[in-house]
Amino acid sequence: MQILAIVMSVFLLYRVQALIYHRVWDRRLKADIRFVKEKVTQGDTVELEEVLENRKWLPLPAVFLTFKLSKYFKETREGSSLSNDRYTRNDLLSVMMFQRRKRCIQLVCTRRGLYRIEQATLQAQSLFLDEKYIKPVSCESCLTVYPGYVDAKRFAQFVETVYGSQMMYPFMQEDPFLHRGVREYQVYDSIRNVNWNATARTGSMKVNLLETMTNQQVSIYLNVQKESLSVHNEVLEESIRLAKTFCAFFSQKGIKSALYTNGTGEGDKEPVCVEKRGAGTAYMGQVNEALTRIFLDETGNIVKYGREQELDFVSLYKEQLKKDSEESQVFLISGDQNDRIVQLMKELSRQGRSFLWVVPVDYTASFHMEPGLVKHTKLWRLNFEGASREAAK
Predict the structure, then answer these.
(1) What is the mean predicted confidence (pLDDT) over 227-246?
(2) What is the dihedral of CA 306, 346, 287, 41, to 10 degrees?
(3) How far apart are CA 246 and CA 228, in angstroms?
(4) Rounded distance, CA 40 to CA 146, Å?
(5) What is the dihedral of CA 379, 383, 386, 391, to 10 degrees?
(6) What is the C-alpha to C-alpha distance for residues 146 and 301, in angstroms, rounded to an integer?
(7) Is the pLDDT of residue 82 over 60?
(8) In what order do the strands lie in the sheet with 113-116?
C-alpha cells in the first residue's frame, strides 16, 4: 500500500506540475534581445544583450532563447566564422523564481547596413523536462552599421601619388583670428602659434588649433552600377568605403565636399545624395546615413538587366558633372568602365576640366587604361575571398 501511495503521489505531482506549467509558464516572464548601441561602424565590436526575467514563484529550470541575425555577423571568439546562411543562437538559460538573468555576446558586423533580430523565440520546459512550451519574442532593437574606411596607410600612399608630398596643404590658409582649441606642441609647429596661457596653466607646450580657410570645393560621384554579373559585390562595397574615406579626408582638411550617387534605398527610386557641401562631424553623419542606405542585392546594380530600382549614372549626372568640373574638383569612383562613362570622361578631359577617376577592381579583373585619360585615372585594386592576386601585374 505504501508503494502504491508513493506511485500515486508521484503521478499526481507529475500531472499537477504539468498542468501548472502549461497554464502559467510564460506569465510575468519577460525576454528581450537588444543591441547595446544603435549605431556602429563596419568592423567594430557589437555587444548584444540577452535579458530574461522570471517575476513569479514558478522556477524555469531550462529555457532556450533562440534568434537569428544576418550572416554578416560573427563572434569575436577565436575559431568562430561566418556561415552561408543566417547567424543563429540557441542559448540555454535557467531562471529560478523572481530571478533576472543577463548575458552579453560580443559580435563583429562585417557589412554596412540596417540589421534587426529575426525569428526570436522562447522555449521552456516543465519541472521534469518532459514537456516543451514555445512562444515568439518581440524584439524592436535595430542596429545601423555605417560603412568602414579603406586601409588608412594605403589611402595615404594613394593620396600622395595624386597630390604629391604636400598632401593638399597649398590649397589651405589658416585664419589666426579663428581658434578651435589647443593641442600639444610638435617639432614642426611655429613658435608664433604657441598658446602661452595654456602652456603656463598645464606645464607643457601648447599650440593653437586654427580654423582653415579655403575656396577649394570637391564633388564626389559614386557609381554603384556594374556592367556584368562577373563583377563581385565586394567591389561595390569597396567603392562605398572609398567614397566615405574621401569625404572624411576632405572634411579633416576643412574642404567642403558634396556626395552624389546613383544608389537608392531599398524600395526607393530616388538617388542617395548629400548635395549640400559641408565638412565636419555633422556633415560626416549625413554621409554615413546616406551611404548606409544604398541597397545592393546579391546581383548588384546592373542596368542592362532591367531592374526598375536602378538609375543610369551617365543619364543622371552628365550635365551635373560638366557643371561641377568647372567650379570644383571632381572625384569619380566607378568600377564600371562602360563606353558611355569613358566618352563622358574624355569629353571633360578635352575641355581641360579638373577631375580624378578612381577605378576599384579586384585582382582578377582586366583593366584597360584609356590613352586620353591616363593622367586622370587611378586604379584601386582590392583583394577578398574568392579573388586571386595572380592576375595583379
Answers:
(1) 88
(2) 80
(3) 26
(4) 6
(5) 50
(6) 20
(7) no
(8) 39-41, 142-146, 113-116
Sign of CA dihedral 181, 187, 193, 198: positive
Grid coordinates belonging to 255: 574642404
Residue type, 222: L
Determine how many CB atoms are found less than 10 A away from the CB of residue 19: 11
What domains does the chain contain, in order, with CATH numbers? 28-146 (2.60.40.10), 152-172+214-391 (3.40.50), 175-212 (no CATH)
Q: What would the pLDDT profile of 207-216 be if each residue is shown by its tens digit? A: 776 555 455 7
Q: What would the grid cell of residue 228 be? A: 556584368
pTM, two decimals, is 0.78
CA–CA dist 104, 29 (Å, integer): 19
Distance between CA 377 and CA 393 in Å, rounded? 17
Strands lying side by side in the sheet with 355-362? 274-278, 256-261, 217-223, 329-334, 355-362, 377-382
Chain CA centroid to CA 93, Å = 32
